C-alpha cells in the first residue's frame, strides 16, 4: 500500500431512507432478510469492506419507538438536513389525482395541520434530494399486482410517476429491481453495487432499457431452469405433480427475464420452476395482466411443445439406446484365467 | 372477588398525556395508534387506531379467473401471504 495510491472520491456515510408505504405488502423487506450475498446485517454493521457506513431507516427493521422517532430522519431529509441518502421505495405509487379530498396511502402526518402526508408528497420531496433512487419489487418498479386491470387506486411504478428519464442527485437513473417478491440476493447485490459507487470505487451499475440491472435480468427463466432439459427432450408435465417441464401447465419461463431458477431462492436452494412452481412472470412489467390466468398454458406453449415433441420422442429413443450401451462395461473386465483386454507388449502406433 | 372489594382509593386528579405512534415500527403493513393516557390513574381514556393504506383487492379481483385467487391474495401480506392463499382457494 503506497502513499501515492489515489483515494476514491466518495461518501463515507450513507443513509438509506426506505419507504414501504406504497401499495405494498412489505414482502420485499421480508425477502431481503433472507439475503446472504451480502446479508443486510453485514452491510448495516459495517462488515463488508469498502462500503460507506450505512444507516438503514426501514419501518419493519427499525429499532425505534415508532411514530415521530422513526419519522425524524425522513422529516430531516425533507428539510435538507440529512444527506447523502438513498431513497428506496417499496410498493406502487397510487394516483392521488383521482380521489378528491381522500388519500390512498400516507406516511406520518403534517406536524402543523395533523393531516396525513401522502406517499406522493414524500416522493416529491425526497426524490430530487436523494443521491440515488431505488425501486424494490415489481410494484415499485412497474406497478405490479395492485396495478392490475380494474384497480381503484390507479397505481403505477416509480418510473411512471417520476418519469423514465429521471436522474437523481448522483446522476443515476431510477434503479429498478423487480420481483414479487424481489429475490433477496438480487436486491442486496444491486444495493451493494450502488453503495460501492457511492464510496467512489465502482462505476454506476449497468442497467437495461427498463432500468433493471443487466447482469441479473439479461437471461430468461428457461435459460436457467433445472428442468429445461426435459423441454429439449419434449417431455412435458401434464399436472402439477411431475418433475418435468411445466410449460404445458402454465409456466411462462421461456419468455420471462429472471434469474431465480439459476441462483435459487435462499442460499442457492429452490427457485420457482425448479421445485414445481409455475413461473408467473412476476418480474415483468406486464405482470400480472399479460400472464393471467396463470394456470393456463401460455399461447406460444402449444406451438413450441407441438414442434419439439416429435424431435423429443425420437431423440429420447436414440439417447436411450446410447445410454444402455454406455451402461454396460467392456467385455474384457472379468476374473477368468486369460487376459482379453487387448494388451500387446510390442504395441506401436 | 369483585363484589366484596372495597371502594378503590380516591381518584387522583388526572394528567392526560397524548401519545401517538404513527407509523408503528417492526410490523408489516400500516398502523397508527392515537391514545390519550391518564398515567396518574393508570388508565387509557381514549384510543383510536388507523390503517393508512387502501389497495382494493376486493375490487380488482372481481371478474378474474378464480384459479388465480391464490396467487393474487398471497400478495396481501409479505409475511402471512400463505394463509390468504389457503383461505382464497
Note down, in words, how this protein is organized.
The complex is a heterodimer of chains A (349) and B (89). In chain A, 30% of the residues lie in helices and 10% in strands. Chain A has helices at residues 27-32, 40-44, 67-78, 119-126, 137-142, 158-162, 184-199, 214-217, 221-224, 228-232, 260-263, 299-326, and strands at 13-19, 53-58, 85-90, 106-109, 116-118, 132-136, 175-177. In chain A, strand 4 (106-109) and strand 5 (116-118) form a beta hairpin. Chain A has twelve helices and seven strands. Chain A folds into two domains: 13-216, Rossmann fold (3-Layer(aba) Sandwich), CATH 3.40.50.700; 219-326, Cytochrome-c3 Hydrogenase, Chain A, domain 2 (Irregular), CATH 4.10.480. Chain A is of the alpha/beta class and 349 residues long. Chain B is an alpha+beta fold. Chain B has two domains: 14-53, no CATH class; 55-89, no CATH class. Chain B is 19% helix and 24% strand. Chain B contains three helices and three strands. Chain B has a three-stranded antiparallel β-sheet, with no helix packed on it. The longest helix of chain B has 8 residues, at 81-88. Chain B is rod-shaped, with a radius of gyration of 22 Å. The N and C termini of chain B lie far apart (48 Å). Mean pLDDT of chain B is 88; it is low at 1-6. The A-B interface holds A 21, 23-31, 59-62, 64-68, 70-71, 103-109, 116, 144-146, 148-153, 180-181, 280, 288, 292-296 and B 20-30, 32, 52-56, 59-60, 62-65, 67-68, 71-72, 75-79, 81.
Describe the SSE topology.
The complex is a heterodimer of chains A (349) and B (89).
Chain A: E1 13-19, H1 27-32, H2 40-44, E2 53-58, H3 67-78, E3 85-90, E4 106-109, E5 116-118, H4 119-126, E6 132-136, H5 137-142, H6 158-162, E7 175-177, H7 184-199, H8 214-217, H9 221-224, H10 228-232, H11 260-263, H12 299-326
Parallel strand pairs in A: 1-2, 1-3, 3-6, 6-7
Antiparallel strand pairs in A: 4-5
Chain B: E1 16-21, E2 32-38, E3 43-50, H1 57-60, H2 69-73, H3 81-88
Antiparallel strand pairs in B: 1-2, 2-3
Amino acid at each position: 500500500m503506497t502513499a501515492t495510491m489515489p483515494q476514491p472520491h466518495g461518501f463515507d456515510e450513507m443513509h438509506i431512507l426506505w419507504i414501504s408505504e406504497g401499495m405494498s405488502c412489505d414482502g420485499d423487506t421480508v425477502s431481503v432478510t433472507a439475503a446472504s450475498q451480502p446479508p443486510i446485517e453485514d452491510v448495516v454493521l459495517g462488515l463488508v469492506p469498502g462500503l460507506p457506513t450505512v444507516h438503514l431507516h426501514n419501518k419493519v427493521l427499525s429499532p425505534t419507538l415508532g411514530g415521530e422517532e422513526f419519522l425524524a430522519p425522513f422529516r430531516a431529509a425533507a428539510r435538507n438536513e440529512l444527506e447523502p441518502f438513498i431513497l428506496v421505495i417499496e410498493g406502487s405509487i397510487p394516483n392521488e389525482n383521482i380521489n378528491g379530498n381522500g388519500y390512498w396511502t400516507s406516511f406520518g402526518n403534517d406536524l402543523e395541520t395533523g393531516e396525513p402526508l401522502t406517499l406522493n408528497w414524500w416522493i416529491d420531496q425526497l426524490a430530487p434530494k436523494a443521491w440515488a433512487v431505488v425501486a424494490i419489487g415489481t410494484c415499485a418498479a412497474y406497478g405490479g399486482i395492485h396495478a392490475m386491470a380494474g384497480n381503484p387506486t390507479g397505481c403505477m411504478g416509480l418510473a411512471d410517476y417520476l418519469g423514465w428519464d429521471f436522474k437523481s442527485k448522483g446522476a443515476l437513473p431510477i434503479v429498478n429491481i423487480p420481483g414479487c417478491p424481489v429475490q433477496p440476493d438480487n436486491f442486496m447485490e444491486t444495493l451493494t453495487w450502488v453503495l460501492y459507487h457511492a464510496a467512489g470505487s465502482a462505476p454506476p451499475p449497468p442497467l437495461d432499457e427498463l432500468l433493471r440491472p443487466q447482469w441479473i435480468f439479461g437471461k430468461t427463466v428457461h435459460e436457467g431452469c433445472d428442468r429445461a432439459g426435459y423441454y429439449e427432450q419434449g417431455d412435458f408435465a401434464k399436472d402439477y405433480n411431475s418433475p418435468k417441464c411445466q410449460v404445458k401447465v402454465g409456466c411462462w419461463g421461456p419468455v420471462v427475464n429472471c434469474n431465480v431458477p439459476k441462483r435459487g431462492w435462499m442460499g442457492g436452494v429452490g427457485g420457482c420452476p425448479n421445485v414445481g412452481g409455475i413461473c408467473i412472470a412476476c418480474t415483468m412489467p406486464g405482470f400480472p395482466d399479460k400472464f393471467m390466468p396463470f394456470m393456463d398454458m401460455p399461447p406460444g406453449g402449444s406451438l413450441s411443445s407441438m414442434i419439439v415433441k416429435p424431435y423429443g420422442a425420437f431423440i429420447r429413443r436414440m439417447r436411450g439406446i446410447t445410454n444402455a450401451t454406455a451402461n454396460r462395461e467392456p467385455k474384457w473386465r472379468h476374473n477368468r484365467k486369460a487376459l482379453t483386454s487387448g494388451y500387446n507388449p510390442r504395441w506401436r502406433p | 372477588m369483585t363484589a366484596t372489594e372495597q371502594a378503590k382509593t380516591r381518584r387522583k386528579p388526572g394528567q392526560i398525556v397524548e401519545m401517538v405512534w404513527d407509523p408503528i415500527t417492526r410490523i408489516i403493513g400500516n398502523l397508527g395508534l392515537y391514545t390519550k393516557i391518564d398515567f396518574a390513574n393508570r388508565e387509557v381514556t381514549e384510543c383510536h387506531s388507523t390503517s393508512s393504506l387502501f389497495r382494493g383487492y376486493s375490487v380488482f379481483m372481481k371478474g378474474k379467473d378464480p384459479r388465480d385467487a391464490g396467487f393474487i391474495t398471497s400478495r396481501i401480506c409479505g409475511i402471512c401471504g400463505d394463509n390468504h392463499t389457503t383461505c382464497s382457494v
